[in-house]
Amino acid sequence: MSGREKCINRDLIKKHIIRLDLNNPKKDYNELVKCIGNAQIVLIGEASHGTEEFYHERCLITQRLIEEKVFIVVACEADWPDT
After folding, report:
1. Whole-model pTM?
2. 3-state class of 71 per DSSP?
């Protein structure tokens, strides 16, 4: 990827980023839910696996998708426990 392409990608990310205040997720997730619009599929990832905070926030987002956007299926990628 060239330097110009990296700048374009960085600018696109900056343009569309939604900053979240985790002290008030209900309010901040309003913008995220609005951006989802009428999408039928939403992919929710995380920066690390197994981090409690990511699971908690993903749960809040998923609840909103079910309650407000009437999503009926949730599929999660997760590790199988060793025990």
Report:
1. 0.68
2. coil
Check the CA dihedral 78-75-20-14 and report its sign.
positive
Give the angle 19-6-45 at the CA atoms, nearest 5°: 45
Q: Tell me if 57 sits within 8 A of 22, measured CB to CB.
A: yes
In a domain, 64, yes or no: yes
Q: Which domain holds residue 33?
A: 20-83
Domain count for the chain, please give it.
1
Residue 8 lies in a domain: no
- Residues 37-81: tens digit of each pLDDT: 999 999 887 777 777 878 888 888 999 999 999 999 988 776 676
Alpha-carbon distance 6 to 35, whole Å?
24
